[in-house]
Amino acid sequence: MTLNKNSKKFLAIASFMMALAIALGAFGAHGLKSILTDSMMKVYNTGIEYHFYNTLGLFIIAFLINFYPNSKKILRSAWLIFIGMSIFSFSLYALAFFSMPILGAITPIGGSLLIIAWLMTTYGILKD
């Protein structure tokens, strides 16, 4: 199968994000358990979980982009997933490290972008 440029781009982004999720997950499991409180470790692990789940979803979207090469909705949803996942997970990583509650206020922005992105993907599949 030949992949188009956008599909390749998001497969590369998803591959990088998966490697990063694995590295950060291992770092958390081995390097942070003795440093973070149990509640902050839960916050960190929530970031890891969403990082993993949405990276897997990004792989799927990368292939959808190949099947729907003219769908601006699906391409936009890929960017929103990447951005939303980054905001959501990295705000939780920072919250766990720095214990700054204000960082928790950023997390829902990422979550909202993820919801919008997945709904946009659904719409793109049905309408394009």
Task: Summarize this structure briefly.
By secondary structure, this protein is mainly alpha-helical. Helices cover 86% and strands 0% of the residues.
Q: Secondary-structure blueprint of this entry?
A:
Layout: H1 5-32, H2 38-67, H3 72-98, H4 101-104, H5 107-127
- Integer-rounded radius of gyration: 16 Å
Average pLDDT level: 95
User: Mind summarizing the main beta sheet?
Assistant: none
SS elements, strand count: 0
* Net shape: elongated
* Separation of the first and last Cα atoms: 21 Å
| Estimated helix fraction | over 70%
Q: How many independent structural domains?
A: 1
Stretches with pLDDT under 50, minimum 5 residues: none
- Beta-strand portion reads under 5%
Tell me what the structure shows.
The protein is mostly helical and 128 residues long. The chain has one domain. It contains five helices and no strands. It is elongated. The model has no long low-confidence stretch (mean pLDDT 95).
Relevant terms:
elongated; 128 residues; mainly alpha; single chain
